[in-house]
Amino acid sequence: HGAPALAELAVTIGVLDPADGRTQATLIPIVEMLMRINPSRIITPSYQVWLEAAVMARILARTQAIPKQDRRRFLNDTLLFLQAAEAGAVMVSRNSRDIDLLLQLKPQAGVLLYDRS
Predict the structure, then answer these.
(1) Using an 8 Å Cβ cutoff, are 88 and 100 in contact?
(2) Dist CA 113 CA 47 (whole Å)
(3) Which residues lie below 8 Å from residue 8, measured CB to CB, with a gap of 6+?
(4) Cα–Cα distance between 7 and 12 in angstroms, integer?
(5) At residue 87, what are phi and psi to the nearest 5 degrees?
(6) Averaged pLDDT of the chain
């Protein structure tokens, strides 16, 4: 499991409004899933991956006019993409738009794209 993906899930916990009646039903499965993950199966981005991801994400944000509100998510996608490449793993994603941009800069990375349909 990539630490940036787990962090994205954890952020959701802080975003949910405790006063909203739907929060509990949304919160429970996220917390349960995060608690089931064995810490020894979590990989974190190396220093080099963080640096490369920051540069790549910013270049693509600028050249592809990625809106400011989407740039943090795009950085996380870039971290996961490069982290998988560094580990020799295959990244599984349905985000074909962003991953296609990343593959143009690093075509040797292993990616499996899927569609919900």
Answers:
(1) no
(2) 26
(3) 73, 76
(4) 9
(5) -80, -5
(6) 92
| Cα–Cα distance, 5 to 26 (Å, whole number) | 17
Q: In which residue are the tokens 């993409």 written? A: 81
Tokens 């981005």, residue located: 45
Per-residue model confidence as pLDDT tens digits over 35-48: 999 999 998 999 99
Helix, strand counts (H, E) of the chain = 5, 2
Concatenated DSSP letters for 78-114? HHHHHHHHHHTPEEEES-HHHHHHHHHH-TTSEEEE-
Structure tokens at 117: 């349909």
Res 49: pLDDT: 95
Looking only at the bridges linking them, the beta strands covering 90-93 and 110-113 are: parallel
Give the Å distances, CA to CA, from 75 to 8, 29, 35, 53, 66.
Answer: 11, 25, 25, 7, 11
Give me Rg for the CA atoms of the chain: 16
